[in-house]
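To the wet lab folks,

You asked to see what we're planning to order before we commit. Fair enough. Below is the target structure as tokens, and below that is the sequence we designed to fit it. If anything looks off to you, flag it before the synthesis order goes out.
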């Protein structure tokens, strides 16, 4: 039995989907007999994404290439795979007997205005073919499962919802350790935090409007924006200048995983007012650190935070500002949400994700053990 997992994206964008793919490989490998799992990484990968008992194969075909369906199929054919898991939803046209895809979200169909024209063409041309080609579809959330049914007519029975998880390093830290670590960034605890890609879908413009409202109400807080630039992000800097918030907004790019834990722990709250999220992993990471999350009442975010987060209308910065002010002024609410958040985060794990994914493989392969 030979099962493959596509890890090519990690060489280009190691966060988000690539992180999910690597965690899947790492946690599913111990569940399989040695020699069963084959990991396909791009030749540009700077490190080796290995896992015990797995074979690593390098390929030339880059992710998101217009010819990748056919080029990748030709490259993986010598592996003689019984099943390939395409972790970024686009399977090759051939090369594996069965295919499983993970669809993380349908932003490109629901909010095309938040993508470049090139990205729209790429995803729109691929998604219909991908869901028809796949033997099984995995979605990160029930929200994405509903979107697949509503927009593409995919029967819910064809889609298995398997939630992601936060890494174990995300945890509450002692206050003195947090304060000492934040000094490297010139920060003191109590700031507002955003974590994610800087792009229109994340609604950073609305978050900045909420920050201005907070300041007008006398609640002067610094906003820390951690992550990396995405597409169409230039207007964010223009909006900061227009609002006169240059002194109150800090961008942190390329942060280490250890320092990201510090940032979560030092924040008053995580603000994630995205118009759309397939899962919203930063919200779960914040909860696992004991940090309250204020999130949009859209898509998967209510599903991820449960009763442990405050839900706001992303179209209305006033509701976001009011939620932030409420948390800033109510220590009992912060303590309550901290406890609820830790309990909510404990419901998710990478081991659970891996075992549920293996069950999908087994169902497709018609076996109880690979």
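Sequence we intend to order:
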């Amino acid at each position: 039995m030979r099962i493959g997992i596509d890890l090519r994206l990690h060489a280009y964008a190691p966060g988000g989907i690539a992180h999910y793919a690597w965690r899947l490989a790492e946690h599913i490998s111990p569940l399989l007999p040695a020699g069963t799992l084959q990991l396909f990484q791009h030749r540009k990968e700077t490190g080796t994404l290995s896992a015990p008992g797995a074979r690593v194969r390098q390929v030339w075909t880059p992710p998101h290439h217009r010819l990748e369906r056919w080029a990748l199929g030709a490259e993986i054919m010598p592996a003689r795979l019984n099943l390939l898991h395409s972790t970024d939803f686009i399977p090759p046209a051939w090369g594996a007997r069965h295919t499983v895809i993970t669809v993380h979200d349908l932003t490109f169909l629901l909010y095309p205005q938040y993508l470049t024209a090139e990205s729209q063409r790429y995803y729109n041309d691929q998604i219909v073919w991908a869901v028809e080609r796949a033997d099984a579809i995995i979605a990160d959330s029930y929200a994405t499962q509903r979107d697949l049914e509503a927009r593409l007519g995919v029967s819910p029975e064809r889609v298995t919802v398997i939630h992601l998880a936060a890494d174990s390093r995300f945890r509450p830290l002692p206050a003195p350790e947090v304060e000492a670590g934040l000094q490297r960034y010139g920060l003191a605890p109590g700031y507002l935090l955003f974590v994610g890609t800087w792009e229109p879908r994340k609604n950073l413009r609305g978050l900045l409007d909420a920050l201005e409202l907070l300041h007008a109400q006398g609640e002067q807080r610094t906003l820390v924006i951690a992550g990396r630039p995405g597409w169409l992000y230039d207007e964010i800097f223009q909006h900061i200048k227009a609002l006169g918030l240059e002194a109150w907004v800090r961008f942190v790019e390329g942060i280490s995983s250890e320092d990201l834990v510090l940032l979560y722990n030092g924040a008053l709250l995580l603000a994630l007012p995205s118009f759309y999220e397939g899962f919203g992993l930063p919200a779960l990471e914040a909860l696992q650190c004991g940090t309250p999350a204020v999130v949009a009442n859209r898509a998967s975010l209510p599903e991820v935070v449960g009763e442990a987060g405050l839900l706001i209308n992303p179209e209305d910065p006033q509701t976001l500002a009011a939620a932030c002010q409420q948390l800033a002024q109510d220590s009992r609410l912060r303590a309550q949400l901290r406890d609820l958040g830790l309990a909510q985060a404990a419901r998710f794990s990478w081991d659970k994700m891996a075992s549920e994914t293996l069950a999908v493989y087994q169902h497709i392969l018609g076996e109880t053990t690979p």
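Structural context that might help your review: The mean pLDDT is 93. The first strand starts at residue 3 and ends at 6.

Thanks,
Computational group
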